[in-house]
Amino acid sequence: MTVGSGSPIPYPLHPKTCYNSPMPQQIIGHEKIISFLEKTLENGQISQAFLFVGPHGVGKTTVVEWLIKKILGPQGFDHPDVSVVARLTDEKTGKTKSEIVVDQIRDLRERLSMSGFMGGRKIAFIEEADFLNVEAANSLLKTLEEPTSGTILILRTLSAERMLPTIASRCQILRFTHVPCTKIAAALSARGVIKREAEAIAALSSGRPGYAFRLLRDESTRSLEETTVEQFVEILNSPLSARFAKAADWLPKDEVNKARQLKDLLDRWEWLLRDVFLISSGAEDLAARAVAYPELKNLARKKTNQHWISVLETLREIKSDLNFHVNPGLALERLFLKL
Q1: Phi and psi (nearest 5°) for 184?
Q2: What span, in angstroms and rounded, lies between the C-alpha atoms of 273 and 308?
Q3: In this structure, which topology does domain 10-175 adopt according to CATH?
Q4: CATH architecture, domain defined by 218-338
Q5: How far is the C-alpha of 261 from the C-alpha of 146, rounded, in Å?
Q6: How far apart are CA 167 and CA 152, in angstroms?
Q7: pLDDT truncated to tens, each residue of the chain (339 aa)?
Q8: Which pTM value belongs to this model?
């Protein structure tokens, strides 16, 4: 966990008003974050604004729900004094819109200005805060600059760098990092999952406990991960001409979310490349997928560990560039050239 340098105004919170919410089984890892939040509640001081930062499925939303229950009670997200802001669905296409718009934030500000239904605190949770458009972000900034008494804002994002610096600086930043696969496997086994199955799911989860639970209950998601490994190995074993020929097949078809979906794909590839690099460096025991996918060992031996470091650096540069509307097709071709 990393606590950010923002300087939000602490909100007095008497510890006796907090609920004894048990730790959800879904929370695996993140002990330092939970400890920090519990101490904050025990001390009767809590920030008026949090920025939860970390990859998809790592456990941010589960911790948000736990925190809400600690403050408002067992209803969690269903509590009448909890407001959730997310991207809306287009009524015509049925697809998720590309932005959170200013009207949504204005509605939120109006709700927060009113007295709570239960006469106490109010909590606002903004999912995918990195999808706030400029007007919405500026409107939210006014709320952070002039916070309503008794209100706590929680923003969730993949990266603090995708937020306006003026927003991030007014939030308590908590960074959620990947959880060791051994810890995820042990937690799944403790919940009754067969050991071999738990280890396989943990390896595919790439250190994301929430995603591990999704893999456990959703066969299609697990199949996608397994297919990704197979296709990734195929690409690395193919000549450059074949890689370029298949580039279009790898690009997401959803135009609205193309960059984000490509980034999700690159996240999965990054974990595979990490394993390949670890194997090539003689640290096979640290490679989560080495046992489940022995073909990664063959790939690792084909190039030096310096080559794999260079590929990983390029991939991370591309992921960063996608935040600035780089053409996804060209970005993918750049990676294929490096491989």
Answers
A1: -65, -45
A2: 7
A3: Rossmann fold (3.40.50)
A4: Up-down Bundle (1.20)
A5: 36
A6: 14
A7: 544 444 454 555 544 456 665 555 668 999 999 999 999 998 888 899 999 999 889 999 999 999 999 999 999 999 999 999 999 998 888 888 989 999 999 999 999 988 878 777 899 999 999 999 999 999 999 999 988 888 999 999 998 988 999 999 999 999 999 898 889 999 999 999 999 899 889 988 888 999 999 999 999 988 988 888 888 888 888 888 888 887 777 776 666 567 777 888 888 888 889 889 999 998 887 787 776 778 888 889 889 989 999 999 999 999 888 877 788 888 888 998 898
A8: 0.80
Distance CA 155, CA 125 (A): 6
What is the sign, positive or negative, of the torsion defined by CA atoms of 225, 229, 231, 232? positive
Burial class of residue 255 in the structure, from the number of CB atoms within 10 Å of its CB (0-12 exposed, 13-18 middle, 19+ buried) = exposed
* 50 beta partners: 154, 172
Q: Alpha carbon 101 to chain centroid distance? A: 21
